[in-house]
């Protein structure tokens, strides 16, 4: 299968490109910068120059492919305006990619986040939020899944708050970056809230399985660790960086403060049963031992 992928040079994207190529697929990957183009080419992918704003480039690449995996996102959480702009850009890109696949029964795998459900671990049957700081992403993903009624084998792989590899990535990576800058390993509130996690290499396997097997209109959870306490995450970070571990105000996390405060465990039981996905890589707390001062 020839697969067009956006975001192929990111933490998850690099792993997905390698996973696809190892399993006999051909990959065409969108590259915004020279550095990304060089890395993707070296990995064995054919490079398509452009970004999410290059709508005609996206349309052409999708039309020439047997399937599409979307991973790209600006990841600028510096302000509410920056988040809104990134969400709007992604929404337009998803709409363009989806329209090119209508009526083809080709797979279109997009990315989402595991939802928050009060009092229990979220499951694949729970809807993603369509309001709040990143509600626009939820609306876009829902629109992609709705394309199943128009002849697109669309699916969404929901990633947990931390996707990690060698101790970096996700919300835990943000805590690490802040700990390095502030010389304090901080956690919001009392740290009892739980965050799910997955290793990037395990997530990559699920993206491939969704591309190959997932029925249209379905959502899947790339969750290996159902929920680690944020205090435990911060404690490992503090020990590895040799800095104190302390509770800090949620507003230091900017527009993500409310999300950081939420207890948000998530289950992948259905995904494992239905697609045969089985995480094999180190857990988050094990992987954080790779952090160096």
From TrEMBL:
Name of the featured protein: SDR family oxidoreductase
Gene Ontology terms for molecular function: aldehyde dehydrogenase (NAD+) activity
Superkingdom of the source species: Bacteria
Organism: Microlunatus elymi
Domain NAD-dependent epimerase/dehydratase: from-to ranges: 3-213
Assigned GO CC terms: cytoplasm
